[in-house]
Design brief:
Layout: H1 3-26, H2 31-38, H3 42-51, H4 69-77, H5 82-88, H6 93-102, H7 112-117, H8 123-130
Helix pairs in contact: 2-3, 5-6
Length: 131
């Protein structure tokens, strides 16, 4: 068998696989079930199904929820850590940090007060130590 014939056979096999996937989708199988059956990622499985004409739910980024933005800003400005706010509001650290940045809140350096106390000395401080 030549490489061209092998490529053609592989292409035929992929077309048949995609048709079977579409039939499974229309029969009620989830994208996760189909992806696991064929050893494909969820995103690739969804893409293949869309190419075959399946109408899938829109692609979303996570779960959208209403967060109490003014309260979160107040908590952070009162000294709460981003992680403690995230835990209290059942959100991720990244979500809370992005929210604070979007609200133009100045983010404190990592380490809290300890980081402030350990900052590098200014050049004037260093020159006074050399003497």
């Amino acid at each position: 068998m030549t490489s061209g014939e092998r490529d053609h056979d592989e292409q035929i096999a992929r077309i048949e696989r995609n048709r079977q996937m579409l039939a499974m989708w229309r029969a009620g199988a989830s994208i996760t079930e189909i992806a696991n059956m064929y050893g494909l990622s969820l995103s690739w499985t969804g893409r293949l199904l869309r190419q075959e004409g399946a109408v899938l739910p829109e692609i979303r980024q996570g779960v959208r929820r209403a967060l109490d933005v003014p309260r979160i800003v107040r908590e952070y400005e009162s000294g709460a850590t981003i992680q403690s706010i995230a835990d209290a509001h059942q959100a991720s650290y990244g979500t809370i940090r992005r929210l604070l940045l979007r609200e133009k809140v100045r983010i404190r350096p990592h380490g809290g007060q300890n980081a402030v106390n350990r900052r590098k000395p200014s050049p004037a401080d260093r020159s006074s130590r050399i003497r």
